[in-house]
Design a protein that fits this description.
Largest sheet of chain A: 4 strands, parallel
Oligomer: homodimer
Shape of chain A: globular
């Protein structure tokens, strides 16, 4: 049941994962910024491989905490196999397992504002 | 020799590469935005694997065109082995080969403005 401290909505930042522990830092930083901005939504990072938690465990933990609606943001600049094939499969399996609403959003690199900002930073 | 249409400075956007041809689109989009903003700098995309051109070929082409100073921006959100080990090695080898100034900048995911924008997009 959703109540104070248990939002019904969640955002999962989905990344590749890496053997390098510093690799996660930017994703965790985004998660902290979201958590600092909104208390109405739970935010988690989940990884395709090499880093815990994996996507299925992350969804399981959120659903156990009362979450019924999950938005998944792929933290990839380019959309390749991981975003077009692996992630939709994980999302479909989690939907089937828990019966909650899970929406896969576009990769961050599909947003023109991100590309525009990166272009401006490159020129600094 | 640098002249009109042959800038002495260049930016290389460095990415992983993918079998999926659509994967390159955001990087190429950033390159187009840079090219549309500044004519004083040449801009190229180069890839670690799977997509051409590789880093060494890209530097060779730029140097042949009169470029003497190259800034490399890793188009990665997280900095793992590819950015901490593979790219510095490629940069070092290209410096040794051509004697031009090549600077490796931080990954785009190290910039707080990028992380802030991504956090805001996640909450939309």
């Amino acid at each position: 049941m959703a109540g104070m401290g248990h939002p019904a909505r969640a955002i999962i930042l989905f990344g590749h994962g890496s053997r390098d522990p510093a690799w996660r830092r930017p994703m965790e930083d985004v998660a902290r910024r979201i958590a600092a901005t909104s208390r109405d939504v739970a935010v988690r990072c989940a990884y395709l491989e090499l880093d815990p938690p994996d996507f299925a465990s992350c969804v399981r933990e959120l659903v156990a905490g009362g979450v019924t609606e999950i938005s998944v943001v792929p933290m990839f600049i380019g959309m390749g196999r991981h975003v077009r094939e692996d992630l939709p499969q994980l999302v479909g399996a989690a939907r089937d397992e828990h019966g909650v609403r899970i929406t896969q959003r576009d990769s961050v690199g599909e947003d023109g504002r991100v590309l525009d900002l990166i272009a401006r930073i490159c020129l600094e």
